[in-house]
Amino acid sequence: MLRHLREDISVIFERDPAARTTWEVLTCYPGLHAVMLHRFAHRLWRARLRWLARFVAYLSRAATGIEIHPAASIGRRFFIDHGMGVVIGETAIIGDGCTLYHGVTLGGTSWQGGKRHPTLGDGVIVGAGAKILGPILIGHGAKIGSNAVVVHDVPPMATAVGIPARVVAPDSDGPGKGFAAYALTRDLDDPLVQAIADLEARAGLQEARLAELSDRLAAQGDALRQAAGTGR
Q1: What distance in Å separates the CA atoms of residue 98 and residue 126, rounded to the nearest whole number?
Q2: DSSP category for residue 186
Q3: Which terminus has fewer CB within 10 Å in the chain: N or C?
Q4: What would the pLDDT profile of 156-190 be if each residue is shown by its tens digit?
Q5: What pTM did the predictor assign?
Q6: How does strand 73-74 pair with strand 158-161?
């Protein structure tokens, strides 16, 4: 337990430049408090002390604004930045080294039992307000842009943006190129938005060409009429 706490504190210093001292992190970071309480509640859940586990999770939610079901499985070095409004469902699985920002939901889409919530691979970054819904897999090192709504699997090292989320491209930066706050990368535009912009640009070029052709035809028509008038 103490080893996990040390790792959770160290990862905050790695990913949040606002963190100054260990005491500040221990006392002022609700994301850390939520993770600590969840690890305790998860142990209670696995010991079949289900009501007590849920009550600890309820107290954690009241204190931090972060709701994590005690049955959810969370790996090492997990960081919730800011945290308010984060919801992690019962059958969610989160790998090592993941980061979630405020307003993120790992939600279920089925009333039936079994796996209903997402699985996040190692090193996944989920931007603020993103919703990942259903028993889908987010591959290792993937990034989910802020406010994206993800309902399909995302391959490893890819970036998904938009509503519904679409994969932009595999991340050429790779996992060793530094932490990407809020899952921001160089080419984060929604591919659908890019396609619409391309269509608009092409339509503008076609309109310009049609206008040019119309002017040329009008000029040739005037010249023909003048030539016909001179011939008379």
Answers
A1: 8
A2: S
A3: C
A4: 999 999 888 888 866 554 444 555 665 555 555 55
A5: 0.73
A6: unpaired
